[in-house]
Amino acid sequence: MLIAIDIGGTKIAAAWVENGKVLERRQQPMAPDPIGFMAAIAQLVLGWPAPQQVAVAATGFINDGKVHSVNQNIIAFWDGFPLAERLAERFACPLILMNDGQAAAWGEYQVRQSASENSPDNLLFITLSTGVGGGLVLDRKLRIGPHGLAGHVGHATVSRQPTDGDLGCGCGRHSCLEKIASGTALGRQASAMFGRAMNSAELFELALTDTKAEAIINNAAMAVAEAISNVHMTIDLSEIVIGGSVGLADGMLQRIQLALARAPNLMQVPVSAAILGPDAGLVGIMQWANAKDA
Ligand code: ADP
Ligand code: ZN
């Protein structure tokens, strides 16, 4: 019995897994502090049997069992938080820990590989969610990197600017992709544009009838396309997979595809939606754990 957990900036998902099959899936909001976080974990696994293994995908980069937010505004207490140690106190069993974008990249790579002989060898997963994260499979291997950073495309800079002109990212840079195209960034730009508190889902709704709302989303899609071309020209990819609640929102994939179609031919690469939908990270970390077991 394995418990898989995916920790994002907004939500935590957990799955009770037996022999590779999900028996139950639950979700809780992400908490802003360690005590609330551990309470949410306890709530998620309430009544589940003691696991033989816990497999965790978490936003941020992971070094030596500790998690760090690249953007300190996403999860403030992710500042070297000893996630592996805290979870080891809660579950007395082996634990694996990986970045959520990397886990999702592995899940999406695996699902394509089992579906087709012509599956991509080089795949970049991009999650447009609370922040913008990602993961990279190169030559059929998941890349984690010596600092756990591989795939963190959200903090690559782009020449497009957010519509509210607010360029400073919580990672310490300016003009990061995350500052334009994350759910947080879309909500911020919408709130500035329309003079009232708005979130990303409300912006997508409004974009059905309002051209200014559409322009914010389209600008974000163009920034994503720019980042895709940058990575493609650096490492030469076969496929890009888009996930996260913003990436999977109505029409976002099509907007990114249209924006990328305007790039020179050489800078274009096929872009598709996450086959595993919002559970790419959860399924990815589960499969990674199973592979490690085998
Ligand atoms: P996490 O970051 O925890 O992995 P999500 O992938 O759900 O979680 O991303 C959360 C972000 O997506 C939030 O900024 C939220 O406002 C935004 N969001 C959630 N649902 C939608 C939707 N239907 N359309 C557009 N944006 C959404
Ligand atoms: Zn940044």
Can you describe what's shown?
The chain is an alpha/beta fold and 294 residues long. It folds into 2 domains: 2-101 and 279-293, Nucleotidyltransferase, domain 5 (2-Layer Sandwich); 116-275, 2-Layer Sandwich (Nucleotidyltransferase, domain 5), CATH 3.30.420. The chain is built from 10 helices and 13 strands. The strands form 3 sheets. The chain has a 5-stranded mixed sheet with strand order 3-2-1-4-8, with helices on both faces. Strands 11-10-9-12-13 form a 5-stranded mixed sheet, sandwiched between helices. Strand 9 and strand 10 (132-138) form a beta hairpin. Helix 3 crosses helix 10 and helix 7 (211-235) crosses helix 9. The longest helix has 25 residues, at 211-235. The mean pLDDT is 96. The structure holds adenosine-5'-diphosphate and zinc ion (ZN). Residues 71, 155, 169, 171, 173, 176, 178 line the site of zinc ion.
